[in-house]
Amino acid sequence: MRITDREPSKRNPVLLGTLLAASLVLITVYFRESDAGILHRMRAATLSASAPLARLGEAAAKPFEAAGDWFAGFGVSKRELERLRAQNAELRARLAELEEARQENERLRRIVAFVEERRLAQLGARVIGRPTSSWEGSIIIDRGSADGVQPGMPVLAPQGLVGQIVTVARHSSTVRLITDEQSGVAAMIQRTRALGVVRGSIDRVLTMEYVDKGKAPAVGDVVITSGLGGVYPKGLVVGDVIQVDARRADLYPRIVLRSRVPIDELEEVLVLLGPVGIDAEGSVE
User: Fold this and answer.
1) Extents of the domains making up the chain
2) Choice between 255 and 214, residue whose per-residue pLDDT is larger
3) CA distance 98 to 128
4) Measuring CA to CA, which residue among 158, 262, 249, 258 is closest to residue 217?
5) Residue-by-residue DSSP string for 266-281
6) 253: buried, middle or exposed (CB in 10 Å: 19+, 13-18, 0-12)?
7) 3 state DSSP class of 42
8) Which of 165, 170, 184, 194 could disulfide-link to 189, CB 3.0 to 4.6 Å?
9) What pLDDT digit, counting tens, does each position of 145-167 carry?
10) Ramachandran quadrant class, 221 (left: phi over 0; alpha: psi -120 to 50; beta: rest)
11) Phi and psi, residue 65, nearest 5°
12) How many whole angstroms separate alpha carbon 106 and alpha carbon 108?
């Protein structure tokens, strides 16, 4: 079988020239004739005939353009959402820090107001160690001998008396709580002015001893420091009476108190500065 190569058809230069000349003539006539000319009327008729097709094509393309715009907007909104989430998390963290600072300032303000009202020299401290069991009766603060802290100095919270310093290191001190079994506080009933001694116990229960039966308190009475013994200034709140048992056979009534100080939640305290002393048992007697 024989395959012959076909030569490509040659273009007709005469036809090309004729079409080019006709185009130039039509363009010249179009621009020279008036709007009512035949070429203008033909162009207007052509546009009118093709307008419905153009509108149909535009309507068909609208959904695709809208979908493209929606997806583009969705991408921008997602990025914006991520940015806003990060900003919100940052603001939340900042707000938590400010709230913590506000609460700390409020606690310190109450403590300072408490001691300034009584014209007492004080030193602020933070609690850095708490009791790890129910029978431990001490806390640790971040002030020590470098700050002028000495054994025997009273320690306060906004709610009342916490205890007194028993051991001092250079930058920390141990505070024996008034609920400790070795603690003793010279106190009096605020309403009746009856004197006695408040002691702690191994289970953190406070009792007031040596109170005259004739001046026994009632439940709800407030017990304050009496100022006797020179350890604690007079008028510091020790606690509230929650139980009174005045049996006839007993020489003194059994009085149970509750301290107002939330030891497990305590964060800041004040150390009252001054020449105070402490005996080997941590008692005021």
Assistant:
1) 15-117, 122-272
2) 255
3) 21
4) 258
5) --EEEEEPSS----TT
6) buried
7) helix
8) 194
9) 999 999 999 999 988 899 999 99
10) beta
11) -65, -40
12) 5
